[in-house]
């Protein structure tokens, strides 16, 4: 498996970040976005039926990130890919969905799916089957931001899990490719009722995570993209000496495992990895937003919390529109069908023995 190669910028001590996060008061007020939420969602939705759900998620993820903080970026990306394709319904978690096998989702981390299922088992063992997988994924994404140093924000809950699969090629239609220009980014985000500020803020999630050579090779082969700073180009060519190289690099060279605003500083220095990153600074429609976020981290955090809340309510299912899955990777109807198939097979075997 490709691993990210570090540049000369020292990596911050992750244990310190986790300790700082843990020392934050549990009662500290979270950022609450001034956003109209979908009918059926509510802040404190599980107050009476599973009041400990957020504590359970945060406690488990603290353990996960203490072992491998890189999983935070994987969970954040999984949530975004879920919401942009058919809404935040947990469809990306389904094993049988074509969504999982299409190119844009092939690089989703297998561990991310395992973490969500582990969380479901913990929560359902404590509260019963009352919390949806899509809500668990939403909380995991929020806490991935929190534990890496980003804002802590309130999320409305009450989503139901989807029972339908996206249509073929929907991932290509809805997700932003790493080689996309700003016009395409703004267009795809607008379809989800996300504006230019939301688009730039959500792109700031690339302050953590990695990018594979195949995702930015057109910027360094055969020649340097003119919007890329020369020393940064030379460093990327060291990581990816050939177009077919299977390697990865940090998306934010200044603080790769810390959620902060230095990603935007990277863009101003023309050190963005993807075209979809760097073009946000090159395009006059979004350059001012990049500059404002680069100079004011608190502003970025506030707008990121708003944008995540808006993204998290895209085309959600509530109440009878969906279900609460017994397993995050399988629809309940498929669970029943699989069980019936096993029973029929066992009965057939028994009959043959008579």
TrEMBL record:
Its EC number is 1.11.1.7. Its cofactor is Ca(2+); heme b. Its main location: secreted. It is found in: Secreted. It comes from the Eukaryota. Binds 2 calcium ions per subunit. Binds 1 heme b (iron(II)-protoporphyrin IX) group per subunit. Residues 40-332 form the Plant heme peroxidase family profile domain. Keywords: Calcium, Disulfide bond, Heme, Hydrogen peroxide, Iron, Metal-binding, Oxidoreductase, Peroxidase, Secreted, Signal. Belongs to the peroxidase family. Classical plant (class III) peroxidase subfamily. Removal of H(2)O(2), oxidation of toxic reductants, biosynthesis and degradation of lignin, suberization, auxin catabolism, response to environmental stresses such as wounding, pathogen attack and oxidative stress. This is Peroxidase. It comes from Hevea brasiliensis.
């Amino acid at each position: 498996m490709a691993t990210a190669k570090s540049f000369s910028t020292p990596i911050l001590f992750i244990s310190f970040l986790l300790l700082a996060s843990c020392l934050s008061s549990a009662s500290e007020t979270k950022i609450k976005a001034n956003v109209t939420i979908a009918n059926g969602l509510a802040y404190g939705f599980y107050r009476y039926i599973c009041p400990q759900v957020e504590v359970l998620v945060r406690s488990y993820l603290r353990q996960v990130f203490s072992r491998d903080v890189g999983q935070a970026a994987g969970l954040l990306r999984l949530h975004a890919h879920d919401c942009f394709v058919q809404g935040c319904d947990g469809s990306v978690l389904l094993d049988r969905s074509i969504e999982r096998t299409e190119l844009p989702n092939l690089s989703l981390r297998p561990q991310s799916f395992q973490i969500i299922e582990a969380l479901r088992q913990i929560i359902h063992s404590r509260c019963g089957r009352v919390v949806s997988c899509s809500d668990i994924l939403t909380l995991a994404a929020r806490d991935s931001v929190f534990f890496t140093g980003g804002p802590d924000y309130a999320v409305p809950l009450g989503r139901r899990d989807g029972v339908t699969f996206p249509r073929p090629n929907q991932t290509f239609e809805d997700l932003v490719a790493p080689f996309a220009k700003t016009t395409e980014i703004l267009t795809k985000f607008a379809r989800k009722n996300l504006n230019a500020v939301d688009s730039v803020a959500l792109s700031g999630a690339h302050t953590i995570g990695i990018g594979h050579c195949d995702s930015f090779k057109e910027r360094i082969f055969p020649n340097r993209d003119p919007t890329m700073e020369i020393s940064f180009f030379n460093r990327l060519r060291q990581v990816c000496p050939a177009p077919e190289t299977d390697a990865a690099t940090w998306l934010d060279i200044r603080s790769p495992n810390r959620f902060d605003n230095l990603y935007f500083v990277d863009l101003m220095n023309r050190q963005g990895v993807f075209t979809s990153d760097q073009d946000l600074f090159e395009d006059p429609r979004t350059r001012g937003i990049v500059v404002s976020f680069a100079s004011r981290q608190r502003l970025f955090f506030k707008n990121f919390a708003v944008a995540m809340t808006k993204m998290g309510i895209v085309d959600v299912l509530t109440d009878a529109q969906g279900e609460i899955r017994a397993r995050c990777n399988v629809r309940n109807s498929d669970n029943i069908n699989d069980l019936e198939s096993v029973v029929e097979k066992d009965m057939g075997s028994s009959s043959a023995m008579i």
